[in-house]
Write a structure and sequence with these properties.
With 195 residues, this protein is mainly α. Helices cover 63% and strands 5% of the residues. The chain has a two-stranded antiparallel ribbon. α2 runs antiparallel to α5.
């Protein structure tokens, strides 16, 4: 595939996947703000917006030429990236829809909160974060790494920070069920069982 064709495929895939993600998140947040049960307990305010702005600022301030030393020009990596990006986007959206009115960008427990253990939550305990990390990895591979390397590292750090906070809150909210769920289902990487 020619360089200009890859450029087009990359731009379309990134815009379609991240655009769909953004629309679902914004519409879902507005919908949930009006209809979700009240927050009973708040564990952590979400730093997603700050992290997203920081990533965009770095993308804009650092010239493309400066990313060339971490850029990969491998068609097989790009094809893998495209597949990972599309699959991860679908997985993320499935998890978001499955969580429904219990979803929040913050770490919270709502009135009537129930522990989700089915659908994507039977594959990993934090499928939205797994999907976001997959989207970042797929984007990085599809675009030849470059500046997406920074987004992947920053996103991973943020996800690990939020996973800790959610694990703590869920363990306190569901002291009988959550430890069993943790033993059965890995946190972020499918098929990776705890020892």
């Amino acid at each position: 595939m020619s360089s200009s064709t890859w450029h087009t495929v990359t731009n379309v895939a990134l815009a379609a996947c991240w655009g769909t993600f953004l629309v679902v998140w914004v519409v879902g947040a507005i919908y949930n703000a009006r209809r979700s049960p009240a927050v009973r307990r708040r564990g952590l305010r979400s730093p997603w917006i700050v992290a997203g702005v920081a990533i965009v600022v770095v993308f804009r301030l650092v010239p493309n030429a400066d990313w060339n030393h971490v850029t990969l020009h491998s068609p097989s990596a790009r094809w893998a990236g495209l597949a990972i990006l599309v699959a991860s986007t679908a997985f993320t959206l499935w998890a978001r829809v499955r969580l429904g009115l219990m979803w929040s960008s913050d770490v919270v427990a709502r009135a009537g909160h129930q522990l989700r253990t089915d659908g994507p939550y039977s594959i990993v305990r934090h499928p939205i974060y797994t999907g976001i990390l997959g989207m970042l990895l797929g984007s990085a591979l599809l675009d030849g790494l470059g500046r997406w390397t920074f987004a992947l590292v920053a996103g991973t750090a943020l996800v690990l920070f939020k996973v800790r906070a959610e694990e703590r809150l869920m363990s306190e909210e569901f002291p009988d069920d959550y430890p069993q769920y943790r033993r059965r289902v890995p946190a972020l990487v499918p098929l990776l069982r705890r020892r």
